Each structure stands twice: as C-alpha cells, then as structure tokens.
Amino acid sequence: MILVRLSRVCYLFLKSISLPVNAGDNDLLGGLTGLSPNEDGFDELIPGFGGSGQPSNNEFGVDDDLDSLFNPVELPRESDKRRLWEREKIIKDRMEKAIADMNNRDHQIQTEQEERSRISETLDGEIKLWATGKEGNLRALISSLHLVLWPGCGWEAVSLTDFTYASVKKVYKKANLYVHPDKVHQKGAQQKYIAKKVFNILQEAWNKFNKEELS
Fold this sequence. Notes:
Helix content: 55-70%
Number of strands: 0
Strand content: under 5%
Distance between the termini: 109 Å
Order of helices and strands: HHHHHHH
Radius of gyration: 47 Å
C-alpha cells in the first residue's frame, strides 16, 4: 500500500509541474501498482483519492502536503526588510543608551560616596570639636556657630552675653536659615555636609530646650 501511495504522489507531482507523463512512466507506474494511472480502480487503491483522479481531504494529509510543497513561497519585500532593520536598530540604540545612562548613574553615585567619605574624614573632627561640651546647650552652640560654618556663609556671630533666654527661639530660627538642607542644596559638597551635621545638632538641642521650657 505504501508503494502505491508513493507512485500516486509521483504521478500527481509530474502533472502538477506540467511535465508530460509518457508511456514509459505509465508502464513504470503500472508495473509497480498493477494498474494504469488512468484505469478505473487505481484511485480506489489509495485511501483519500476519488475516482476523479483528483486528491481529496483525507486522513493522511496528502492534499495539505502537496499544497505546501508546490505552492510558491512569498518572499519578504525590500521595503519590509528595511522596516524590520530600522525597528531592530531603534531597539538596539535604546538599549545601548539605557545601559550607558545606568553606567553613568552608577559612576556618579560611586564618586559622590567617595567624596562624602573623604569629606567626613576631614570635617567630622572639626564638627565634633565645636559640639563637644555643648551637647543640648542651644545658646552655647549658636553663640559659637561661626566657628564651624564655612567662610562667606553670611552668618554673623552672636555673643553669649547678648543672647538672652527670651531671644533663643528667634535666633534659632535665624540660624536654621543658614543650615537647613533646603537652603543649601546648591552649595558645594563640603558646605552641604557641614550644614546637615550642624542642623541635626541644633535641632536636637532645640528639642531639649522646648522640653525644659514646658516642664
């Protein structure tokens, strides 16, 4: 049965490509199958083929195989190829830019961390020297604030003798304007570091002052 099917497929292939089927081919097919390709009963030997000699839908899928084998394949046009190439290039460029931006951010973060580490080693000693012995003493901290702030910041020193208890709140708010993080975001790295440290120390002292005043 398999031999009969193969013979039939060969016969249909020759017909589909418009090649003449000569007497020798018929004899060969007849010798293999025992029937002439045009004889009644030849098609009936092969499941899925009718008496018309034309293939039909069958369980073996011969029709589908022949259609996919002999139908021409549509190749992509040049315009389609170019659009595909342009799309791939856009995706590639975006990926490369995203990777470059990420590398730049990582490098910037690393540089800032190294700068903060270097600054802390230099300035922590000066800030500690200013705050030592004055922990929680808001008047003493503000009266010596000019010793820790950077030159040119605009802060004017306040004498401890002129720093009355009643004016503590007013002077504290004024000092806050020089060291508050929102006021120094355009300053250099050293100025921002000093301001942050001083702001935290003054705020802690202010909280203590308020508790003592309310008690």
